[in-house]
Write a structure and sequence with these properties.
- This protein has a domain of about 180 residues: 3-Layer(aba) Sandwich (Rossmann fold).
- The strands form 2 sheets. An 8-stranded mixed sheet has the order 3-2-1-4-5-6-7-8, sandwiched between helices. Strands 9-11-10 form a 3-stranded antiparallel sheet, with no helix packed on it.
- Helix 1 crosses helix 7 and helix 3 packs parallel to helix 4.
- With about 325 residues, the protein is of the alpha/beta class.
- Helix content is about 35%, strand content about 15%.
- It starts with 7 loop residues before the first strand and ends in a 9-residue tail after the last strand.
- The radius of gyration is 19 Å and the shape is globular.
Length: about 325
């Protein structure tokens, strides 16, 4: 990969799960990574076991809950690689249980890691990116950002907030040349998923046909999120907005203006789906929100941080208005 195509990533949660896989996959693809995690021992073990190249991956343990740690992490990344192009906020914390039974320490750990960690990272890298007039912030939410999961109350609440913060921040940073994307995956086969197996209250987590893999996340990130910079990416599409299961049936859906509802109904017959085994939207679909997207070849919309029309799968989108359009 030429230097002009190489990107530099600041990646949190790199000691395990999604973050660990991305550190190896991105560096193997020719990119440069500052790999961060609060678990310094786990980060070092991942480097050795996965064979991360010294010249491509800089391990830098830090705590996403501490604002000063974010400021301190940017310096080593710039000193080693000369720049940072993308922030990947992957670090997260989850402990199953009812919200009303959680102690204060659990409340703080969920909020501080899942929400405040994302906020602090967006603040620190957002200021740097604004000064550069370019950059991409990718915050990892969850399908729980769209449909709250009983038994994962604190996790759901913080992931809801991550989505809200990301969508609002995208509007604030767009005039400065900075894109913000929130990625909303269903359950992913990682240690975080495995720890939920013995908790009956987390049963809804396993209601999908199969867990996603870290390779699924990697593919959508590299093929869809980074090149197209959408506002939001849900994986998989059929478990996306307003379709996640809940004890009382489908998640609540906000009413659409009559004109939008009629327009969606007219388009529904022309909806296209990918053939089995294809790389189309059924596996990684993008949903239009306040970054102003309307489909003109399909019944679902893709958000984009860019003003130009962009094709993703069977759908192309264009900037139209601030009205959110959510089609089922």
């Amino acid at each position: 990969m030429t230097e002009s195509l190489t990107q530099v990533f600041l990646l949190t949660g790199a000691a395990s799960g999604i973050g660990r896989h991305l550190a190896g996959a991105l560096s193997a693809a020719g990119h440069r990574v500052l790999a961060a995690d609060v678990n310094a021992e786990g980060l070092g073990r991942a480097r050795v076991e996965d064979g991360w190249a010294e010249e491509a991956v800089l391990c830098h343990p830090f705590d996403v809950r501490v604002p000063a740690d974010w400021e301190a992490a940017l310096g080593p990344a710039l000193a080693r690689f000369g720049r940072v192009n993308v922030l990947l906020n992957v670090a997260a914390y989850l402990k199953p249980g009812a919200g009303w039974e959680a102690d204060a320490a659990e409340v703080d750990k969920h909020v501080d890691t899942n929400l405040k960690g994302v906020v602090h990272g967006t603040r620190a890298l957002g200021r740097y990116f604004v000064a550069q007039r370019q950059g991409h912030i990718v915050n990892f939410g969850s399908l729980a950002s769209l449909a709250p999961v009983p038994g994962l109350t604190l996790y759901s609440a913080t992931k809801f907030a991550v989505r809200a913060f990301s969508l609002a921040s995208a509007q604030e940073l767009k005039p400065h040349g900075v894109a913000v994307t929130v990625v909303l995956p269903d359950a992913v086969q990682t240690p975080m998923l495995e720890l939920q197996v013995d908790y009956p209250e987390a049963a809804l987590t396993f209601s999908g046909s199969r867990p996603l893999t870290v390779q699924d996340i990697h593919r959508v990130l590299l093929e869809k999120v980074l090149p197209h910079r959408p506002l939001e990416a849900t994986l998989p599409f059929h478990r996306g907005p307003w379709r996640a299961s809940s004890p009382s049936g489908p998640a609540w859906r906000p009413p659409l203006p009559r004109r939008s509802t009629e327009r969606a109904a007219r388009r529904k017959p022309s909806r296209t789906r990918s053939a089995p085994g294809s790389q189309g939207p059924a596996e990684g679909a993008f949903v239009g929100h306040a970054n102003h997207c309307e489909p003109h070849s399909s019944a679902w919309a893709n958000g984009t941080n860019e003003g130009s029309s962009v094709a993703v799968g069977a759908t192309s989108v264009r900037k139209v208005s601030v009205l959110s359009l959510l089609f089922s």
